Amino acid sequence: MIAFFLMSVDRRITCRDGQAMKPAQQTAVTDKIQQAVARLVATSSAGHNLPLIGGFRYRFLDRSVRTSRDIDYHWSGDLGKKQQELIKLFRKRLLPGIQRQLGYEGRADPATGPDAESPAVCTVALSFWKSDVEFSRIEIPVEITRVVCADPVEVRTVDGIIYPTLSDVDLIESKIIAVFGRRLMEHRDLLDIFLFAGKLAPDSPKRLKRKMKALAIVGEDIRKRLDDLKTHAAYHTKAIQAIVDSQFDPEAAGNINGTGGAKMIQNKVLGIIRANILPAGGA
Questions:
Q1: What integer is the mean pLDDT of 198-225?
Q2: Which CA distances in Å does 8 have to 2, 4, 230?
Q3: Strand order, beta sheet including 71-74
């Protein structure tokens, strides 16, 4: 039952009918729904050997100070087929439970538009809302993608539930690869590298060289992205700061802003990337 997946909710998060939902309330509800999704997938046949990855994995399993709006999974098989399996699961079990427990209506649909154009990812678009509450709509993309791994899949446990996931080293290396592999940079990758760079291994440069070769990411790609980070440093600093202000827990954001802010993060992450990529990429 979905009530089991929502067992960590200490109290129902509500606001008065017709009253606009505050950002903090919406974030709290989003966290609870994301955890319900992760628990449901981990305990269903559709989630068998489906490793949890990305920023939400860091938030949920590693207590990251950065919130994540999406949920990512690694799948080595047919991405479209797994997408349909998850849609069926969410429609049958997740949506009725969220309606019953939190009072939110919801939908689970295959993503459309630009989100559906990449052959490297299939996305389930989850959306939830209260018809009588302004600005209550919550959107949670569940992305199924494929990551180059050097290590076997591992498992982590939370409250007696087993979650397949990538090794800490594979996951942080995937964040570095994303800096160069994405057509458009997602600055959240830089933040996760800053937070979890300690998970890199002594042989990560060699591992990253092999992975980037497998993905056809060449030295020119690396140079272009590093040049962009340098040439447009002010833009990237502003984008990093926006994530610190909007996605970091308040206490963590205060500590960051008091010790150099986004500029400090940008400089440290560039140093981490150069130490692990330049010897391997030859740039």
A1: 96
A2: 12, 9, 44
A3: 105-110, 121-129, 138-145, 71-74, 52-53, 161-165, 154-158
What is the DSSP pairing of strand 138-145 with strand 71-74?
parallel
Same domain, 255 and 271: yes
DSSP helix/strand/coil, 283: coil
Backbone φ, ψ for residue 249 (5° rounding): -55, 145
- What is the predicted pLDDT for the residue at 7? 44
Select from 240, 272, 206 the least CA-distant residue to 66.
240
In this structure, the answer to whether residues 145 and 283 fall within a common structural domain is no
If asked whether residues 19 and 137 sit together in one domain, one would say yes
Q: How far apart (Å, rounded) are the C-alpha atoms in residues 110 and 57? A: 22
Shared domain for 152 and 204, answered yes or no, is: no
176, 114: one domain: no
Is the pLDDT at 9 greater than 90, yes or no?
no
Task: Tell me the C-alpha distance between 189 and 180, whole Å.
Answer: 10
Residues in the chain: 283
Q: Are residues 240 and 104 in the same domain?
A: no
d(CA 224, CA 219) in angstroms, rounded, equals 9
Number of structural domains, the chain?
A: 2
Domain boundary among 112, 134, 166: 166
DSSP string, 177-234: HHHHHSSS--HHHHHHHHHHGGG--TTHHHHHHHHHHHTT--HHHHHHHHHHHHHTHH
SS3 readout for 113-126: HHHHCCCCEEEEEE
Cα separation of 258 and 261, whole Å?
Answer: 7
Structural domain harbouring 150 = 1-166
Indicate if the pLDDT at residue 159 is higher than 90. yes
- Which pTM does this prediction carry? 0.89
Same domain, 34 and 46: yes
- Phi–psi pair at 24, nearest 5 degrees: -65, -40
**Residue where a domain stops, chosen among 107, 138, 166:** 166
